[in-house]
Specification:
The protein has 4 domains: 102 residues, 2Fe-2S iron-sulphur cluster binding domain, sarcosine oxidase, alpha subunit, N-terminal domain (Ubiquitin-like (UB roll), Roll), CATH 3.10.20; 185 residues, FAD/NAD(P)-binding domain (3-Layer(bba) Sandwich), CATH 3.50.50.60; 136 residues, no CATH class; 93 residues, Arc Repressor Mutant, subunit A (Orthogonal Bundle), CATH 1.10.10. Helix content is 22%, strand content 23%. Strands 8, 9, 10, 11, 12, 13 and 24 form a 7-stranded mixed β-sheet that branches. A 7-stranded antiparallel β-sheet has the order 25-28-29-32-31-30-33. A 5-stranded mixed β-sheet has the order 2-1-7-5-6, with helices on one face. Helix 2 packs parallel to helix 4 and helix 5 packs parallel to helix 6. It is globular and about 85 Å long.
Length: 700
């Protein structure tokens, strides 16, 4: 029986858990405690969870965040989202290929009263911003309720195996996201009883009486009336319309990282990535760490929009990056089998005869984020005092979200007249620095420090980051403390480098190497950061060393691998190189770019592009209505059902608007969708107080 669970990972521990049996279409499979149904199915090689009722198209994982219904299955006869429901021993899981038969329900004479709770502060979202705010409010003694729809705290930080950028003093820079999540979650729990935490609990709506409806623990409806609301619900991923975009194997970046880094299962063997922002670049690196081949990455812009150090990491490892390219189609029958891309012109239109097709079994979409701000908008409409932090307010890096949550915690306490100090202007300035976009590139040849030992700093872009300067024991690496976006400088006037390699190990961008020519000036030792299993490059074996752009320099033997506790799972690989190459060496190539040759173009066989995945409404259907003069998204919804699915138009709404703009409709003439009150689907029995084990509608 196949087992697609991770067996080894250079950063993540692989826990030993006693498995149990469950059933998929009468087949006995093995599940693990705490594993979602989707993870258990993937671990057993199942990627198609059912077929759409409208046209029989295969359905699988897309968001892994409970926001769509692509992963709907039957568990013991009950329709559930496989990405949100935990698998249980002896569970019988079936694909949802037809409408489920509802069981007979006993009559219920009376609705049960709805529990109501008053609380000074309600925080929606247990990610970096929500946790940070809860910590500050708890320290100030402000009673706070924090809710999150997952089974754990941390938000997307629990998926981040890389070290964070930003300020080491202010936002844990130089620490891995998974460790920051654990540290902040523990601190929040320690602040009980001031801070209560409800996990597996989803905010449903903000009502005109300033109450917030919450589905607690997936089964109980509660109304919470806060004096102040903090919306820290993060962001949702933007989607993209291309032929075959609905095939199982086309994932949002968060879904791929969830399966890989949280659930510890392999979503793919050969991955293609669309989008060169930080999300796409980081996801590619995470895939490589888990042993997934990254076949290529496309970015429609002439340059990737993410940090250059992230892009450089991929280039050094051997990932082909195609800028000024876009995806044309995902190709395959039941799942993704290949991806076709093409070069684009200045108007982002595909250029004929530039198509290329790559064999792959998954396509990751990372084309930007939209704030999840519906609750903020509604609260303002109903005059409920409301604040926002993190991506729900402005899309930025997680370090910026942590800092914005800290500030908003103080703001909320002060607004409720709790004793809280004045917020220093320095905090606001720091917040602006942390959420700033990548800055200008600089030229640097490194220090004139030969012979001897010195770091080569390959970080050539202004970004907010300072761990290297804060960790240097002799203060030789310096960053402008007034503005940590300035690139680091090795100051030879302050002393002599000890060769401790701390800067090499802590750099979040893996952008520092160490040149040591003290023993042999003509053949210095080069220390390189490496976050992959040591078994890939045993001591004595040849490795291909490359420059900052991934260009071949030489094949050199590994002299030594250092893996000490202080390096926090970053290996230090030492090679010995000729003096003329020493300063150029920036990394080790992992992939052979010719290992996955191009295939013949398959785009002619691709299926339609789907705009509404839930209701199976194609781009062609919607374009025909637009050309007939319909510019109201509500009318398009009434005619096609686009936007009536489980995601509540959160995915397809922006895509329909984009089609209108592409068809030449001015933005002022577009009538947006009317937002409905419920954020996610809820069994009607929950509102009546029917318990899940009572056999009533609460089960459905």
């Amino acid at each position: 029986m196949p087992n697609h669970r991770l067996q080894i990972h250079p950063i993540l521990p692989i826990p030993q858990r006693e498995g149990f049996e469950f059933y998929w279409e009468e087949n006995r499979f093995t599940g693990l405690p705490g594993e979602t149904i989707s993870a258990a199915l993937f671990a057993n090689g199942v990627h198609v969870f059912g077929h759409h009722l409208r046209d029989g198209s295969p359905q699988g994982i897309y968001c892994a965040n409970g926001q769509c219904a692509q992963c709907l299955v039957l568990e013991n006869g009950k329709p559930v989202k496989a990405c949100m429901e935990l698998v249980s021993p002896e569970a019988r899981i079936e694909p949802l290929n037809t409408l489920p038969k509802l069981p007979e329900s006993p009559a219920t004479s009376y609705m049960q009263p709805v529990e109501e709770l008053r609380i000074p502060v309600l925080i929606i979202g247990g990610g970096p911003a929500g946790l940070s705010a809860a910590i500050e409010l708890g320290k100030l003694g402000v009673p706070t309720l924090l809710i999150d729809d997952k089974h754990h705290l941390g938000g997307k930080m629990v998926l981040q195996t890389h070290r964070f950028f930003g300020s080491r003093e202010a936002v844990y820079a130089g620490t891995r996201g998974i460790d920051i999540a654990a540290r902040m979650a523990d601190e929040v729990k320690s602040l009980s009883p001031y801070v209560q935490v409800w996990l597996n609990s989803t905010a449903l709506a903000v009502f005109s009486d300033r109450k917030v409806g919450i589905l607690r623990d997936g089964s109980q409806y509660v109304l919470v009336k806060p004096e102040a609301l903090l919306v820290a619900s993060g962001a949702r991923e933007k989607s993209l319309a291309f032929r075959g975009n609905w095939l199982p194997g086309v994932y949002g970046a968060g879904a791929f990282q969830t399966l890989l880094n949280r659930d510890l299962v392999l979503p793919a063997q050969h991955l293609f990535i669309v989008g060169g922002g930080n999300v796409g670049l980081i996801a590619a690196y995470h895939a490589l760490q888990a042993g997934v081949e990254v076949v290529g990455l496309v970015e429609a812009l002439p340059e990737c929009g993410g940090y250059k150090v992230h892009q450089d990491k991929l280039k050094r490892l051997g990932v082909p990056i195609f800028t000024s390219h876009t995806i044309l189609s995902a190709n395959g029958d039941q799942t993704v089998e290949s991806a076709t891309i093409a070069q684009v012109d200045a108007r982002f239109q595909p250029i004929p005869d530039t198509e290329k097709t790559f064999a792959c079994d998954a396509i990751l979409i990372a084309v930007g984020l939209d704030p999840v701000n519906e609750f903020y908008t509604k609260a303002r409409e109903f005059d409920l005092p409301v604040f926002t932090a993190g991506d729900a307010g402005e899309i930025a890096e997680a370090s910026a979200a942590i800092y914005s949550g800290k500030i908003q915690g103080f703001e909320i306490a002060r607004s409720l007249s709790y004793p809280a100090p004045e917020i220093p202007e320095e905090w606001r300035r720091q917040a602006e620095i942390l959420k700033s976009k990548p800055g200008k590139l600089i030229d640097s040849d490194g220090p004139d420090a030969e012979p001897g030992v010195y770091p080569m700093i390959h970080c050539l872009q202004e970004i907010p980051c300072d761990p290297c300067s804060s960790v240097c024991p002799r203060g030789l690496i310096q960053i402008n403390r007034e503005d940590i976006r300035k690139t680091p400088v090795f100051d030879t006037t302050q002393g002599v480098c000890s060769g401790c390699e701390r800067c090499v190990a802590i750099c979040p961008g893996l952008a520092i190497t160490l040149v040591d020519s003290r023993k042999d000036p003509e053949h210095p030792l080069i220390s390189l950061p490496f976050e992959f299993p040591e078994t890939l490059f045993p001591e004595g074996e040849l490795v291909t060393v490359v420059d900052i752009e991934g260009n071949f320099l030489a094949d050199l033997p590994v002299v030594k691998i250092r893996h000490i506790k202080a390096n926090d799972r970053t290996r230090i690989v030492r090679v010995q190189a000729p003096r003329e190459l020493a300063r150029k060496i920036a990394g080790i190539r992992l992939l052979n770019q010719s290992a996955n040759p191009l295939k013949e173009d398959q785009s002619a066989d691709a299926r339609e592009a789907m705009i509404c995945r839930c209701e199976r409404v194609s781009a062609a259907e919607i374009r025909s209505l637009i050309r007939a003069g319909i510019h109201d998204l509500n009318e398009i919804k009434a005619v096609t059902r686009a936007g009536m699915g489980a995601c509540g138009s959160k995915t397809c709404g922006p895509l329909i608007r984009r089609l209108l703009l592409e068809e030449g409709v001015p933005s002022a003439e577009i009538m947006d969708l009317t937002r409905r009150p419920l954020f996610v689907e809820v069994p009607l029995g929950v509102f009546a107080g029917v318990k899940p084990d009572s056999g009533g509608d609460g089960d459905r």
